[in-house]
């Protein structure tokens, strides 16, 4: 009986394809994988060690899933309850988005209380002449629409008014009583005011009874500011890069607010005791994260602008530690990182910290307080405050932010 040559060829091809398939499966599961993401300035290497499933099962509780996203429960106030006047309230946003949120809230509360017209603010950096438009960072249409029926808003101050403005300082979380005593008399006398918010303390705890001003503050802080499209897309792309780097932890990553220059400032000095300590360096953060159970494959984003040698101790324990310069797309680096303006970098840090699976504030300050507020609304309440742990290990839940464990953040007045 003759052999059909076509059957022989088909058999050989089938066998060859089967061998190739086995080889591909074996390579994908067991070979070392090394990726370099487009646009990074350093190689992104994945560990050669096999995936330790026992370790994952042990630590799965650390990556506490998001809680249910909360719904805004503030009542939008009406303009009808306020006597309207013809003066203007102007102000500038300064020092980064953690301050912008509070500055916006104070300005809206003052303008509404006076029945005045609010002028869209400009945004000013730390250097003289460092100035940009509101719409360079935020969506101006979203802001104006959110204020409809609450306070009148215009994009520009009329030229005839520009030299007739009285400067007034107001404390963060300004009250209606303060406005009546210290701002309204000046407004009535001069006709227009320019606000500057100062921060006598960093306190975002919710107050006792909820009033009309609280509803206005809730709307202004959590319902009026959205990033303009380019900024929004950039932050999204950087978050996705971090998730890509986090394959061994199911795409989850930690954001650590750790800026080396802040550790030398007054607020971080003289706080060495455990009860008073409000700032932690890279080594202390690394030891803390290890002791509560995070493994070496954990991906960490650090808010430090450029890599600093002091971060090496964090990278020694967590090799997948990155700053923004190593994950930003190459075509965005010149515009957002290589300029003299640090405002855009602060925006990136704030919003990545708001989106991470775990947030660790190594520095206690307004960024911590206002990132927590933003995370509460989206259900991302896995916020772990560092501490010096004397034992070899501890439960992560013991270090949950008091803003969350006690539900005493102002944001809990705004969401339900």
What global shape is seen?
globular
Specify the CATH architecture of the largest domain. Answer: 3-Layer(aba) Sandwich
Residue-averaged pLDDT, rounded? 84
Low-confidence stretches: 24-58
State the strand order across the main sheet: 8-5-3-10-9
List how many beta strands DSSP finds: 14
Taking the alpha carbons of the first and last residues, their distance comes to 82 Å
* Sheet with most strands: 5 strands, parallel
Write the CATH fold name of the largest domain: Rossmann fold
SSE order: HEEHEEHEEEHEEHEHHEHEHEHHEHH
Computed over alpha carbons, the radius of gyration is: 26 Å
The chain-level structural class is alpha/beta
User: Which percent bin holds the helix content?
Assistant: 25-40%
| CATH top level class name of the largest domain | Alpha Beta
* Tally of helical segments: 13
Q: How many structural domains?
A: 2
- The amount of beta strand, in percent, is 5-15%
């Amino acid at each position: 009986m003759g052999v059909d040559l076509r059957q022989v060829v088909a058999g050989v091809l089938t066998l060859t394809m089967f061998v190739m398939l086995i080889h591909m499966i074996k390579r994908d599961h067991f070979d070392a994988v090394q990726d370099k993401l487009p646009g990074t300035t350093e190689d992104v290497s994945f560990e050669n060690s096999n995936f330790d499933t026992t370790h994952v099962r042990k630590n799965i509780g650390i990556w506490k899933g998001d809680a249910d996203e909360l719904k805004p429960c503030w009542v939008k106030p009406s303009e009808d309850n306020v006597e309207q006047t013809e003066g203007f309230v102007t102000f500038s946003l300064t020092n980064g988005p953690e301050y912008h949120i509070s500055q916006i809230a104070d300005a809206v509360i003052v303008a509404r209380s006076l029945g005045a017209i609010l002028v869209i603010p400009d945004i000013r950096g730390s250097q003289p002449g460092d100035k940009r438009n509101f719409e360079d960072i935020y969506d101006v249409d979203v802001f104006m629409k959110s204020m409809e029926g609450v306070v009148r808003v215009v994009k520009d101050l009329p030229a005839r008014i520009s030299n007739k403005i009285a400067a007034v300082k107001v404390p963060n979380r300004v009250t209606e009583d303060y406005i009546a005593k210290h701002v309204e008399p000046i407004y009535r006398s001069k006709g227009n005011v320019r606000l500057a918010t100062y921060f006598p303390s960093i306190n975002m705890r919710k107050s006792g009874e909820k009033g009309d001003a609280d509803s206005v503050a809730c709307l202004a802080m959590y319902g009026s500011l959205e990033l303009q499209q380019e900024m929004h897309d950039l932050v999204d792309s950087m978050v996705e890069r971090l998730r890509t780097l986090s394959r061994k932890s199911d795409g989850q990553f930690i954001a650590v607010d750790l800026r080396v220059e802040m550790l030398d400032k007054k607020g971080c000095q003289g706080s060495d005791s455990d009860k008073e300590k409000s700032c932690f360096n890279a080594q202390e953060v690394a030891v803390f994260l290890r002791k509560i159970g995070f493994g070496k494959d954990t991906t960490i984003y650090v808010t430090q602008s450029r890599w600093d040698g002091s971060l090496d101790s964090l990278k020694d324990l967590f090799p997948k530690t990155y700053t923004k310069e190593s994950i930003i797309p190459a075509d965005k680096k010149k515009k957002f990182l290589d300029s003299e303006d640090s405002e855009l970098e602060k925006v990136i840090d704030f919003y990545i910290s708001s989106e991470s699976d775990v947030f660790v504030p190594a520095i206690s300050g307004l960024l911590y307080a206002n990132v927590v507020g933003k995370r509460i609304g989206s259900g991302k309440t896995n916020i772990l405050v560092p501490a010096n742990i004397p034992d070899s290990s501890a439960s992560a839940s013991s270090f949950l932010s008091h803003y969350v464990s006690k539900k005493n953040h102002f944001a809990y007045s705004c969401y339900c």
